[in-house]
């Protein structure tokens, strides 16, 4: 979710640095959810791979709660160049800086800048992402500094990815997990799997994913609803039922499976339409596949859309589909639930753990197009027209939010800083 705020950027020798006004640690209601004896509000430096929209709510909430600085290694995630960099940079209210303007820096450059940030900011806890160069460097630095610096490794790997890790990657994962003072994962299932793999106590693992603020996302949907309804009028689908896919059009997203399943499930049903929101290298191929089937006039490709428009499409859809063969998490699952839309989700997605009842959706193996088609038909009786869903504004389906992530993050850094008293 992007809001425009913050001060103008200033150049330095290592890239663009943006320092927001320092906020004093406030008393946040989330802290009340933590055991009193475990609460510790340390200063934290996060070394994060790139600026990304799904971190805005979390990092801004954390900035209101504890002394926080974020070092973004690169400007934008490599998986999507469609983000508005300026709007994204302005959205982060936390104290932050950008290490490199041009891709991933060398290990020497990364080490120097991390050391500089540690000397300047003097955090009690250093958080690094994944089992990466930054995490290796952080582990070595933490060993040198001893108890003065707690290191937290934050991984997005889902249970399937953890179980499939082999060779040197497995060795690195076990070593880094074993040297960290605490570990953050995206789900309890991932925490269980990684704790067993590394032979570590489960209480060193905490859950912090990339959930969003429900009120903010629903407000964004309402903001763009008129534009989406106008688009529906143009496509002549205002009176139809919509299944939506929000995804990059890349091989691992497996959108072709959704198209094939839709063609199979609704070949003779003119009332249901498939709307695909997203852009990517496979768009031409997918459009060709869609045009070759019986639903050729009922599959609509909208290309890249801004966040408010995406949220409005999720709000007027009867069902959302994520069919990825590889998906560390899948933020669209939580976003769909926030907009009141159930999800048919691949079991390869980390966010499949959110689908714990038929009310929220269903989970399927990504290779089973026949099963996906059957699930689409199963949910068909509950479908409603776009105009009806727009008028009634579906209530949110209960799911974790950014508050849960803040709680997990604070618990992890508190443990790493020695906040837990045994």
Overview of this protein structure:
This protein has 422 residues and is α/β, with parallel strands linked by helices. It folds into two domains: 10-211 and 402-416, 3-Layer(aba) Sandwich (Rossmann fold); 214-392, Rossmann fold (3-Layer(aba) Sandwich), CATH 3.40.50.2000. Helix content is 39%, strand content 17%. Strands 1-2-5-4-3-6-7-8-9 form a nine-stranded mixed β-sheet, with helices on both faces. Strands 12-11-10-13-14-15 form a six-stranded parallel β-sheet, with helices on both faces. Strand 1 and strand 2 (15-18) form a beta hairpin. Helix 1 (56-63) packs across helix 15 and helix 8 crosses helix 11 (307-316).
**Tally of strands:** 15
**Low-confidence runs (pLDDT<50, min 5 residues)?**
1-29
Please give the largest β-sheet.
9 strands, mixed
The value of Rg in angstroms is 22 Å
């Amino acid at each position: 979710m992007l809001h425009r705020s913050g001060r103008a950027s200033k150049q330095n020798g290592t890239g663009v640095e943006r320092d927001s006004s320092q906020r004093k640690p406030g008393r946040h209601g989330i802290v009340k959810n933590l055991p009193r004896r475990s609460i510790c509000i340390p200063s934290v430096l996060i070394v994060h791979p790139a600026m990304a929209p799904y971190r805005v709510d979390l990092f801004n909430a954390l900035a209101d709660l504890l002394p926080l600085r974020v070092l973004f290694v690169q400007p934008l995630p490599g998986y999507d160049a469609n983000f508005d960099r300026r709007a994204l940079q302005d959205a982060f209210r936390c104290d932050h800086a950008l290490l490199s303007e041009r891709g991933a820096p060398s290990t020497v450059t990364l080490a120097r800048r991390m050391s500089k940030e540690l000397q300047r900011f003097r955090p009690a806890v250093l958080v690094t992402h994944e089992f990466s160069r930054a995490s290796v460097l952080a582990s070595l630095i933490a060993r040198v500094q001893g108890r003065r610096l707690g290191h937290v490794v934050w991984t997005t790997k889902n249970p399937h990815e953890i179980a499939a890790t082999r060779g040197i990657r497995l060795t690195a994962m076990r070593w880094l997990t074993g040297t960290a003072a605490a570990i953050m994962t995206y789900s309890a299932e991932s925490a269980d799997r990684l704790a067993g793999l590394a032979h570590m106590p489960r209480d060193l693992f905490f859950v912090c994913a990339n959930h969003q603020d429900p009120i903010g996302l629903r407000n964004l949907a309402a903001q763009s609803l008129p534009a989406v309804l106008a688009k529906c009028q143009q496509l002549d689908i205002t009176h139809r039922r919509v299944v939506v896919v929000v995804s990059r059009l890349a091989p691992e997203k497996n959108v072709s499976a959704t198209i094939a399943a839709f063609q199979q499930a609704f070949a003779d049903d003119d009332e249901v339409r498939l709307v695909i929101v997203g852009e990517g290298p496979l768009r031409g191929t997918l459009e060709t596949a869609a045009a070759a089937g019986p639903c050729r006039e009922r599959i609509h490709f909208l290309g890249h859309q801004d966040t408010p428009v995406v949220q409005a499409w999720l709000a007027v859809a009867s069902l959302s589909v994520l069919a990825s063969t590889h998906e560390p998490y899948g933020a669209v699952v939580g976003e769909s639930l926030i907009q009141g839309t159930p999800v048919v989700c691949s079991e390869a997605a980390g966010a499949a753990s959110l689908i714990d009842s038929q009310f929220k959706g269903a989970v399927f193996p990504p290779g089973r197009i026949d099963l996906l088609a059957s699930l689409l038909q199963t949910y068909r009786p509950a479908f409603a027209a776009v105009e009806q869903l727009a008028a009634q504004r579906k209530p949110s389906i209960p799911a974790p939010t950014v508050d849960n992530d803040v709680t997990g993050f604070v618990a992890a850094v508190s443990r790493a800083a020695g906040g837990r008293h045994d």
